[in-house]
Amino acid sequence: MRSTLEQAPGPRTLDRWIAIGIFVAALALRLTLLLRSQDAAWPHCTVYEGDAPVWVRWAELIRAGQPFEDDLAFRTPGVAFTLAWLGLTTPPFTAAKVLWCALSAATPAVLWLVMARWFSRTAAAVAAAWLALGFGSFAVATSLNNEAPYALLLTLLAGGTLSWIERPRAWKAIALGLMHG
After folding, report:
1. pTM
2. Which residue, 75, 45, 42, is CA-closest to 58?
3. What's the start-to-end Cα distance of the chain, in Å?
4. Cβ distance 160 to 176 under 8 Å?
5. Do the beta carbons of residue 54 and residue 75 sit within 8 Å?
6. What's the rounded Cα separation, in Å, for the pair 16 and 169?
7. With 0-12 CB in 10 A as exposed, 13-18 as middle and 19+ as buried, what is 124?
8. Closest CA to 30 of 148, 155, 160, 169
9. What is the full per-residue pLDDT of the chain (181 aa) written as tens digits?
């Protein structure tokens, strides 16, 4: 890691523009895949089903005020509550999947900012490109599972933790605590 004395506070303007470019490119690629596939309206994609049908069913029950799996938390409820809160519990699921694509596209952009700030631009370029263009990222972006939002959350937590270590502030600790749940 770079020493704190070598760097200016906050991300540089160029790094912000690069992150925006990464987000736009990654989002365009993910939306192209989503909108040209036969499974755009499904809660999952053809290559990765995961628990997407379970999240949708759980979200339907949340909106109806009904218990799910005997009210025992066998799974993390984030996706189900998000779908219920947004009212995205019935087909077509294209709008929800567009949101998932945006979350997935934001992850390599945030990763660029974190890596460029605390490591190097070379490391940031490799990590962000790998995450933006990796097949697995496309699969989780087009399936309503918890990997896309949690990958973004993990990246934000890593950057937030490094920022807090560099300059401890109460508001940063509170934000990190909220993100950790």
Report:
1. 0.89
2. 75
3. 27
4. yes
5. yes
6. 23
7. buried
8. 148
9. 554 445 555 568 999 999 999 999 999 999 999 999 999 999 999 999 999 999 999 999 999 999 998 888 788 889 999 999 999 999 999 999 999 999 999 999 999 999 999 999 999 999 999 999 999 999 999 999 999 999 999 999 999 999 999 999 999 999 999 998 7
Q: Residue 119 — φ and ψ, nearest 5°? A: -125, -100
Residue 66, sorted as left (phi over 0), alpha (psi -120 to 50) or beta, turns out to be beta
Strand, helix or coil for residue 100: helix
Burial of 138 (0-12, 13-18, 19+ CB in 10 A): buried
Q: Where are the beta strands (DSSP E) in the chain?
A: none
Residue with tokens 């990997």: 147
Please check whether residue 83 is in contact with residue 144, taking contact to mean a CB–CB distance below 8 angstroms.
Answer: yes
Single-letter amino acid code for the residue at 93: F
